[in-house]
């Protein structure tokens, strides 16, 4: 498996020497997941952080009634984990499932902490990645409060055209926080 996508992602955030990039990448281990396979299940502790090389994942919760509520999708060139469970080593409230056959690079918490100690610039890298992720979450929350369901749907399909084709309407509805039936009405009204 090629680490080129990971190296390019890192270089988008900070400039590093080739040797430093190689060292960082050496801590990541490749893994393949089949469609519908779980990387993390609700109630277990998140021991790995992932970077998607190919494929797509969904991060979701199941409520007491068994309804799926999708927090986000992670496709090629995206980071993936339950940050609370990973950092605090507490049971996760999330599921991480491959939507299609996927390739991911994984780093353990122990190895990530070792990288922080041996290469302080890695803390800067992940601080920048975390901040950008937090901005994205904040923007999503604002959209959820300001936009109608229809506006949220159109924003989603315009912003993530490469992902929407991989998803079922049920998964999209779970992400938008609406019922599958309401999504059907929105889609019918656009025709």
UniProtKB/TrEMBL annotation:
Entry annotated with the keyword Kinase: yes
This protein's name: cAMP-binding domain of CRP or a regulatory subunit of cAMP-dependent protein kinases
**Protein keywords:** Kinase, Transferase
Give this protein's Gene Ontology molecular function annotations.
kinase activity
Residue ranges constituting the Cyclic nucleotide-binding domain according to the UniProt record: 32-117
Q: What is the lineage of its organism?
A: Bacteria, Pseudomonadati, Bacteroidota, Flavobacteriia, Flavobacteriales
Any Pfam family the entry gives: cNMP_binding
């Amino acid at each position: 498996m090629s680490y080129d996508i990971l190296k390019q992602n890192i270089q988008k955030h900070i400039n590093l020497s080739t040797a430093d990039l190689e060292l960082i990448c050496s801590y990541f281990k490749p893994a393949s997941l089949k469609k519908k396979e779980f990387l993390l299940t609700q109630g277990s502790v998140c021991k790995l952080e992932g970077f998607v090389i190919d494929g797509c994942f969904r991060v979701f919760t199941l409520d007491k009634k068994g309804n799926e509520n999708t927090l986000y999708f992670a496709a090629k060139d995206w980071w993936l984990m339950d940050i609370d469970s990973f950092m605090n080593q507490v049971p996760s409230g999330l599921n991480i499932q491959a939507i299609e056959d996927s390739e991911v690079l994984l780093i353990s918490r122990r190895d990530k902490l070792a990288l922080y100690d041996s290469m302080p610039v890695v803390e800067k890298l992940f601080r920048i990645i975390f901040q950008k992720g937090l901005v994205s979450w904040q923007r999503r929350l604002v959209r959820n409060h300001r936009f109608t369901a229809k506006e949220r749907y159109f924003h989603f399909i315009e912003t993530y055209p490469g992902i929407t084709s991989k998803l079922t309407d049920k998964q999209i509805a779970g992400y938008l926080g609406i019922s599958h039936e309401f999504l059907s009405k929105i889609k019918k009204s656009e025709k």
